[in-house]
Structure formats: structure tokens, C-alpha cells
Write a structure and sequence with these properties.
One of its GO terms (biological process) is proteolysis. It holds the Pfam family Peptidase_M1. Its cofactor is Zn(2+). One of its GO terms (molecular function) is zinc ion binding. Its EC number is 3.4.11.2. There is one protein chain. The strands form 8 sheets. The chain has an 8-stranded mixed β-sheet with strand order 6-5-9-3-2-12-15-14, with no helix packed on it. Among the domains are: 168 residues, Immunoglobulin-like (Sandwich); 131 residues, Neutral Protease, domain 2; 89 residues, Sandwich (Immunoglobulin-like), CATH 2.60.40; 124 residues, Zincin-like fold (Alpha Horseshoe), CATH 1.25.50.10. It is globular. Helices cover 41% and strands 21% of the residues. A hairpin with a 5-residue loop joins strand 27 and strand 28. It is an alpha+beta fold. It has 27 helices and 31 strands. The structure holds ligand BES and zinc ion. The site of ligand BES has 18 residues, from strand 20, helix 2 and helix 3.
């Protein structure tokens, strides 16, 4: 967070203004004398002039620090202090800077820098949190070797690197300050070891509060599988003798990849069958992998500046999605990723917050840890791999790892490695990093005497600051089927490079049915004239599992849109297609569950808006209900059998197969609940021995408005488990009927267990409100007003989380004049609030300026 005082003009930083640091750091020695409100931090930093620098200004970042003393080579530094940092006269030769500052972890509710969570000290330094610990060149292109001493009565004291004993730590790998970490508290560990590919033994630990020791085994197993996978797939070995993970209850994000000391939101690491759902297990496995993979993509090779964030995040998300695909089901993972991409990134790309994967300017970097940088950033890596092929991809990665080890790099450095191994010019490809907006690709087909031609036309709509777009290179995977559903042309990558680009397929007996953008090979919006019969045909026959699902999704979207705009009844062709999916014994149950999920209310709202129709959230809600009711009726004879067949016997296992059966069984349960008044769901709720079954049953009951009793029992049963109670808070709001969500959320803020300083709890209530489309957009505007009230309150304590949650308003221009006026009012009210942080101010300003 920047200086929060209203007088300070927000400072916009530009990629084009990058200059190398004036001084580099060799070594850093830190001593922490821990105290809740008066921690002393002593620093001794060896600086030397950077030969590549153009100026010699000695400037150190520092915010909310009380300076006790500062010296240069033992003499008073005569430092000039501002709200943002320190300047001093420094020699044009190597020198030692020493300082002592005082900070107050206990009162640090922003959860950035050194703070306290449940009596435990911990840090979060990415992106610019180290400057709240001491004066330092807090930029990722300054890398130093850290030695840390922690003084305090806490039984466990941890920092990066190797344990020298007595609270002293040494990290041999030079690192930027954002990877620094410190933890101290009354913790216990779940230990294990891992033998690396070169035969070194690494000590592994997951550190938790005493009561959580029974929730560590799964995370540890996921860590070891991640370590093995990175050796096997990318040839990357771990590089310290010790790897520590710590679970923290109060944490803004999911987790953080600090060198040798990853810090996790407890929700992103603690798992047990009784308290975690299958979705939780999958997420925990992915986050552990993600943070571990950063050791190479992020830590050994880091970012030159924060504009290059996708260099580590997009790549690491790509790597963790490869891992999940390998460990579980590639088809299911791809479908899940595309659902999330559309829900978060397409939404962002199509609104006021649209920005390139590599932004060109920012005010607050914390606001750029976005779906675009992460998810679209990962898609860009996937496209690169598709375009150059697997072999060249891994060769390029190897070159990147060897050439840039120990450096702070740019996207140019990354791409140069692939240009070098392939001899290919990636200039046009680079537009994916610099141009915002989701390309729309229109498809036309032609058939003549054995030749089938697909003509694609690309168009990327204007985004803030970018009116005109150049054509991008788009890898579109295409396969062709005949009328019998047999593949007559295997998948081919059509490399689109122009605005209009035609691709011919020859030697065909009859006009084929195309399957376009297989595997979602490019993150585009495909505009093709496809009738519902063709969609149903592809849902039944496409050999590409992603497009098989996609056809069903397009069908569902079309059915819902016609229900909303034409008051149509649910299309029989859709119901028949679903029935066929349900009966197809060759399909993976997890796939069936995904094929039955209907597009979200937000998806439908977006699709309506794109088609020139103002979405009515109430109508979308009612349509979804009607459609699901129709599906339940159409399936009524089959549901009990599906439900029975999908029961998993024996001890709980979170593996993909068992999870898939539970998912499909619970789809059947939720449909059954619409027919049986909740009898089956109540039985499942009462007999469940794992959270997936218990929570699914509760959700089905709440959706059918017969869940109050179960909900109370659930709350009583789990009152001592914070992570489960988060679920309970979220369920009330997510499953509140139509426009009851704002009142429900408001009532929950008065619940004794509501705690706005815990980001998980705040998100449980208000994330659920924002995600309940009909509820958030209640016609009386109470959803908007409530969220604005609470974001203003939260902003005073935790600007980063408040700013992130303001994206609930990013779609305001889609809606009718009344709703737009009320959302504008809410945004203006936040903007005018006194002492608003720079974080939230930047967000509401950008949203309003659409
Ligand atoms: N480096 C980030 C954590 C982070 C994000 C720190 C924003 C500071 C500001 C970490 O690697 C990360 O990306 N975590 C994700 C989870 C991941 C699986 C995408 C998160 O925390 O949500
Ligand atoms: Zn990350």
C-alpha cells in the first residue's frame, strides 16, 4: 500500500520508465527483536554501485517505520525521510548501510509486512511489503544474500534458507526482498523427507497450530508429488536442504512462495476428509504445487520489475495446471480452467479493468495480481507450446533456466529463448502480452467438391487506452467429423495470422461437421453459426473431450438465452442430449457432472449484454431454476439409479476417480431434491462421513428452501473449526433465495463469529454476496449499498483485500439505467470516503471511468 493520506497524489508508474537500480546489494544481515507493538529491526546491508546505472541517487523504500538510527560506513547517514522512503549521500564505492527501525506487528491489519495472526508473527512481502519492515531497495531486480537472526520467546522461529540454530538463518541464494519471510510462534510440525533426483535428502515440514496437526498429511503428499513432477517434466531439482510450509489463519491471498519458507493461508493447505471438500483437496494440491514450482519460475529466475509479473505467475499457473492435468484428468482440468477463465478473465477483459497480460502502467501493483496476468498469462504459455510443439517448448525452457539462473528477467528474455531454439520470429506472438481484450473469431464455412474451407475473421474490441488492435497469431485446433460421428480429419492447428484467414481441408467424401478450437487452444470467443442439432451431435460424438463439453455448454447457453428473451420453454433437444450423456457408460462421471452444470448467471448476463440485451438478474435466476426443474423431471426415472451407482464405499480418498463419482452423484442428488422434498439429501446430510457429501447435501437442501434445520445442525457441529465455519457463512449467502442475499449477509455481520479482520471470513460473506448475481443485483440496490459500506470499513484496515473485492462492481455498465445509477452511486460513495487507500481509490476510479 502506498501512503494513504488524501493529500498524496497517486503516483502512476510506467514500464517505459524503467531504470536500473543505482546500487546493488551483496549481503543483508537482519536482526529481529520481536515485540507485538515495538519490534526492533536491525539491518546491515552491503551496497555497491551498479555499473549499469545512470544515476547515483541512494534511495531506500520505507513506509510506516520509526527510524531509530541510520549510518553509512559507521557514520550518521544524515538520512532524509519521507512517507515513502529515505535518501542519503552515499559513496561511489562499496559501503555498509546500517539502520535500526521500530515497527508494530500487532496493529498491522493490512497483513502486509510483519504482522501477527492468532499470536503468531508472520510476514507477507510480495509485492512491496518489505518496505514496511525496514529501509531497503524494495524492487525485484535488487538481489541479496540474507542472514537473519530472530530474538524472542516463541518456541519456533523460522526464516528463509538453512537453519543455523538459535533463531539464526542463512539463505545462500541471492533473492529479492519480496521473497523474504519470517515466522515465529507456538507451532508444531508435520515432518517428512524427499530424495531429489541427484540423491540429496531434503527435510520437509508443514508448520501449524497444535490442533491442526491432523490436517497436514495431504498437503505433504502433494508437496512430494510436486517435487517429483518438476524433476520429471521440467528437469528442475530443489536447491536447499530444507523446505518449510507454514499455515496462517489471516492471509490476504492463497499462499506465497518465499524462498524455502512458503507461507499459506490455512485454507490453502489444511485438509482432512471430514472438513475439506473434493474441490478443497484439488485446490490445495494445486496451490502447494504452484508455490513449490515458483522455486524455479519466480525465485531462481525472478522478475526485473512488477510489469513482468506474468513471467512468473502466468508461467507458474501454466505449470501447476499441467501438474493437475497429469495427476488427475486432463479433460476435467481443462474444462474447469476454461470455466474459471471465462468467469474471471473474460469478464475482466470485457470491462473497465481490462489490461494487457503485461500492463504498461499501474498505481498500486497489488491491483494487478489479476485473472488477466495469471490466467490469460497461463493461456499465452499454452499457446506458445501449441505453436512451437512440445519438444521446442521444453528445449526453450531449459535454455531459459540455464541462461537466466540467478537473474531478474523480462518477457523479452523469456521469448528470446524460444526464438533461439526454434528460429521463429515471435514478434506477432508478443502482441498477446501487450494487447488487452478477448479476440472474437467469426467462422464461415464453405464446401465444394471434396474441399472444405473454414474462414476465420478476428476482431478484438477496444479496451481502456487501446482503441485499435493489430491481428494476433491465434492457434486454432480443428478436427472434422462425418455424419456418423467418426473423425475424418484429425486435429490440425490452424495458425491464424491475419484479420481474415482461410484454411482448406481436402480429400473429403462429404461436408464434415467441424470441431473448432479443440481443447480451447486459444482464449478467444468463437462466433459460429451452429444450430442446436449440431451442438447435440458434437456433445454426443466429438472425440475432443473439451469440445464435447463445449458443445453442451453452447447448447445450454442458447436454451437459457431463449428462455430469458423469448420466454421459451426448455428445449427438448437439450434435455434429450443430457439424458444421452447420463446414459453413456463410456463417460467419466466427473465429465458428466461438468456437462450437467449450467452456465452461471454471470455468464448468461455477459452473453445477453454481448447480444445487445440488458440482462435482468431476476429473470436469469428464475430461468436457471426452471431449467433445472425441467432437467429433474426429464431425468426422474434415471436419477435414483445414478445416485445409487455413484456411492463410494470404503474409507474416504480424495483421488480424482472417487471425487468424480461424488460429483456426479451429487448432481443427481441436487436434482432429486427438487422432486423428493429433500428426503434423500437429508439422509445423506445425516450419514455423511466426509465434507463433500455433507456440504453437497446441505446445498441441495438450501437450494430447495428446506435446509434451515440442517444448516443449524451444521453450524453447531463445526463451531470450533474456522475453515468449516467459513463455508457455513458462505452457504447462507450463496444459497439465499433470489434477492434475500443482501439481508442475509447483513445479518451475518452481526453473528458473533463474524470477524472482518480475517480475510477468509470477510470473503465468505461478501465474496458470496458478489457471487450471488441475483442477490447482489437486488432491484432495491441493497446489495450494492451493503458491499460499498463494508468495503469502506474494510479499506481502513486492509486495503489490499478491499480493493480486490471491489471488482464485484466491474460489470456495472451491463445493467439497466436504475441499477447503473445505484452502482455508480455506490462507487462514488467509496471514492469520496475519507482516508480511502490508494488501492481502493485506483480500483473505483478505473471502474467508474469506463
Ligand atoms: N506470489 C503469489 C502470492 C501473492 C499474490 C503475493 C499477490 C502478493 C500479492 C502466489 O504465488 C500466488 O500466485 N498465489 C495464488 C495461488 C495460485 C495457485 C494461483 C493465490 O494466492 O491466490
Ligand atoms: Zn504465484
Amino acid at each position: 500500500m502506498k501512503d494513504a493520506s488524501p493529500a498524496a497524489a497517486p503516483l502512476e508508474i510506467f514500464l517505459s520508465d524503467y531504470t536500473p537500480p543505482a546500487y546493488l546489494v551483496d549481503t543483508v544481515e537482519l536482526v529481529f527483536k520481536l515485540h507485538p507493538t515495538a519490534t526492533r529491526v536491525l539491518s546491515k546491508i552491503a551496497f555497491r554501485p551498479n555499473p549499469e546505472a545512470t544515476d547515483r541517487t541512494f534511495y531506500l523504500h520505507g513506509e510506516q517505520l520509526k527510524l531509530i538510527s541510520a549510518t553509512i560506513d559507521g557514520k550518521d547517514a544524515n538520512a532524509k525521510i519521507t512517507d515513502l522512503g529515505l535518501t542519503a549521500q552515499a559513496p561511489d564505492a562499496p559501503f555498509v548501510f546500517e539502520a535500526e527501525v521500530e515497527i508494530s506487528p500487532q496493529t498491522n491489519t493490512a497483513l502486509e509486512g510483519l504482522y501477527m495472526s492468532n499470536g503468531m508473527y508472520c510476514t507477507q512481502c510480495e509485492a512491496e511489503g518489505f518496505r514496511k519492515i525496514t529501509y531497503y531497495p524494495d524492487r525485484p531486480d535488487v538481489m541479496g544474500v540474507f542472514t537473519v537472526t530472530i530474538e524472542g520467546s516463541e518456541p519456533v522461529k523460522l526464516s528463509n534458507g538453512n537453519d543455523l540454530g538459535g533463531g539464526k538463518w542463512h539463505d545462500p541464494w541471492p533473492k529479492p526482498a519480496y521473497l523474504f519471510a519470517l515466522v515465529a510462534g507456538d507451532l508444531v510440525n508435520h515432518p517428512d523427507t524427499f530424495n531429489t533426483m541427484s540423491g540429496k535428502q531434503v527435510e520437509l515440514n508443514i508448520w501449524v497450530r497444535k490442533g491442526d496437526l491432523n490436517k497436514c498429511a495431504f498437503g505433504m503428499d502433494a508437496l512430494k508429488r510436486s517435487m517429483k513432477w518438476d524433476e520429471e517434466v521440467y528437469g528442475r531439482e530443489y536447491d536447499l536442504d530444507l523446505f518449510n510450509i507454514v499455515a496462517v489463519d489471516d492471509f490476504n491471498m492463497g499462499a506465497m512462495e518465499n524462498k524455502g519458507l512458503n507461507i499459506f493461508n490455512s485454507s490453502a493447505v489444511l485438509a482432512s476428509p471430514e472438513t475439506s471438500t473434493d474441490a478443497n483437496f484439488e485446490r490445495i494440491e494445486a496451490i502447494i504445487a504452484h508455490e513449490y514450482f515458483h522455486n524455479w519460475t519466480g525465485n531462481r529466475i525472478t522478475c526485473r520489475d512488477w510489469f513482468q509479473l506474468c513471467l512468473k505467475e502466468g508461467l507458474t499457473v501454466y505449470r501447476d495446471s499441467q501438474f493437475t492435468a497429469d495427476e488427475r484428468s486432463p479433460a476435467v482440468k481443462r474444462i474447469e480452467d476454461v470455466i474459471a477463465l471465462r468467469a474471471r478473465q473474460f469478464r475482466e477483459d470485457n470491462g473497465p479493468l481490462a489490461h494487457p497480460v503485461r500492463p504498461e502502467s499501474f498505481v498500486e501493483i497489488n491491483n494487478f495480481y489479476t485473472a488477466t496476468v495469471y490466467e490469460k498469462g497461463a493461456e499465452v504459455i499454452g499457446m506458445l507450446k501449441t505453436l512451437i510443439g512440445d519438444e521446442a517448448y521444453y528445449k526453450g525452457c531449459d535454455l531459459y533456466f540455464t541462461r537466466h539462473d540467478g537473474q531478474a528477467c523480462t518477457i523479452e528474455d523469456w521469448l528470446a529463448c524460444f526464438e533461439e531454439v526454434t528460429g521463429r520470429d515471435l514478434t506477432q506472438f508478443k502482441l498477446w502480452y501487450s494487447q488487452a481484450g478477448t479476440p472474437r473469431v467469426a467462422v464461415k464455412e464453405a464446401w465444394s467438391e471434396g474441399t472444405y474451407t473454414l474462414t476465420f475473421t478476428q476482431d478484438t474490441p477496444p479496451t481502456p487506452g487501446q482503441d485499435v488492435k493489430d491481428p494476433k497469431v491465434i492457434p486454432i485446433a480443428v478436427g472434422l467429423l462425418n455424419d456418423a460421428g467418426e473423425e475424418v480429419h484429425a486435429t490440425r492447428i490452424c495458425e491464424m495470422t491475419d484479420v481474415v484467414h482461410a484454411f482448406r481441408f481436402t480429400g473429403l467424401d462429404a461436408k464434415p461437421v467441424p470441431s473448432i478450437n479443440r481443447g480451447f487452444s486459444a482464449p478467444i470467443i468463437l462466433e459460429q453459426d451452429q444450430d442446436n442439432a449440431t451442438r447435440a451431435f458434437l456433445l454426443a460424438h466429438d472425440t475432443d473431450p473439451f469440445n464435447k463439453w463445449e458443445a453442451g455448454r453452447a447448447l445450454a447457453r442458447d436454451v437459457m438465452i431463449r428462455m430469458v428473451t423469448e420466454d421459451a420453454t426448455p428445449d427438448q433437444a437439450y434435455l434429450d442430449a443430457l439424458l444421452a450423456v447420463a446414459r453413456d457408460d463410456t463417460l467419466d462421471p466427473a465429465f458428466k457432472a461438468l456437462a450437467f452444470s449450467t452456465p452461471s448467471a454471470d455468464d448468461i448476463a455477459q452473453a445477453l449484454f454481448d447480444g445487445g440485451v440488458t440482462p435482468d438478474p431476476t429473470k436469469i435466476y428464475n430461468t436457471t431454476q426452471t431449467l433445472r426443474q425441467s432437467v429433474a423431471h426429464a431425468m426422474q426415472d434415471t436419477l435414483p439409479r445414478i445416485y445409487a451407482e455413484m456411492q463410494v464405499d470404503g474409507p474416504f480418498s480424495p483421488d480424482a476417480e472417487a471425487a468424480g463419482k461424488r460429483a456426479w452423484g451429487n448432481v443427481a442428488l441436487s436434482l432429486l431434491t427438487r422432486l423428493d422434498g429433500g428426503a434423500q439429501a437429508r439422509t445423506q446430510f445425516e450419514s455423511a462421513d466426509n465434507m463433500t457429501q455433507q456440504l453437497s447435501a446441505l446445498g441441495a437442501l438450501l437450494r430447495a428452501e428446506v435446509g434451515e434445520e440442517a444448516s443449524n445442525a451444521f453450524c453447531e457441529q463445526w463451531k470450533d473449526d474456522r475453515l468449516v465455519i467459513d463455508k457455513w457463512f458462505a452457504m447462507q449467502v450463496s444459497y439465499a433465495k433470489l434477492d434475500a442475499a443482501p439481508a442475509t449477509a447483513k445479518a451475518l455481520t452481526n453473528h458473533p463469529d463474524f470477524d472482518m479482520t480475517n480475510p477468509n471470513r470477510f470473503r465468505a460473506v461478501f465474496g458470496a454476496l458478489a457471487g450471488n448475481t441475483a442477490g447482489f443485483h437486488s432491484p432495491d440496490g441493497s446489495g450494492y449499498a451493503l458491499l460499498a459500506d463494508w468495503l469502506i470499513k474494510l479499506d481502513a484496515k486492509n486495503p489490499q483485500t478491499a480493493a480486490r473485492m471491489s471488482t464485484a462492481f466491474e460489470t456495472w455498465k451491463r445493467y439497466d439505467a436504475d441499477r447503473q445509477a445505484m452502482m455508480r452511486e455506490a462507487l462514488e460513495r467509496m471514492k469520496a470516503a475519507s482516508n480511502l487507500s490508494g488501492d481502493l481509490l485506483e480500483m473505483v476510479t478505473r471502474i467508474l471511468n469506463a
